[in-house]
Design brief:
Blueprint: H1 14-24, H2 29-39, H3 42-59, H4 64-71, H5 75-87, H6 91-103, E1 111-112, E2 117-118
Antiparallel strand pairs: 1-2
Helix pairs in contact: 3-5
């Protein structure tokens, strides 16, 4: 690796795809938890868990103020997650939709609290 691209990380790449395929082989939540614990630091796990909690609440139209109270996350972090939920690659949306079909069987479109604009097309 050269000095000019030492901090560059192209995603996805061959290794990240191998990581994803390897994760798909795990069959239980406990296996996945063990794998994540071996792979990530506690801080990385905390940050991922916080982002996922925020994404679920934004998806469910929870006001930012309530999300901050429940998670302790800053409005900047919440806005960043909401941005990726809306304009990202669709990963958050896909999982939220799949979870919704499993538990409630309804579609929800998050609303940006400051504007009232629905984040996802209906």
């Amino acid at each position: 690796m050269t000095a000019t691209n030492a901090h560059r990380f192209d995603f996805p790449n061959e290794e990240s795809r191998d990581l994803c395929r390897s994760m798909l082989m795990l069959e239980t939540v406990e296996d996945f938890e063990n794998f994540l614990r071996d792979l990530c630091t506690i801080q990385e796990l905390k940050e991922m868990t916080e982002r996922w909690s925020i994404a679920k609440m934004v998806w469910e139209n929870c006001p930012y103020r309530v999300i901050t109270q429940k998670t302790g996350a800053s409005s900047t972090t919440i806005a960043r997650v909401a941005h990726w939920l809306t304009y990202g690659k669709g990963g958050y949306q896909k999982v939220c939709e799949l979870r919704g079909k499993q538990s409630v069987n309804k579609e929800v479109s998050p609303v940006f609290p400051a504007t009232g604009i629905h984040a996802l097309p209906r």
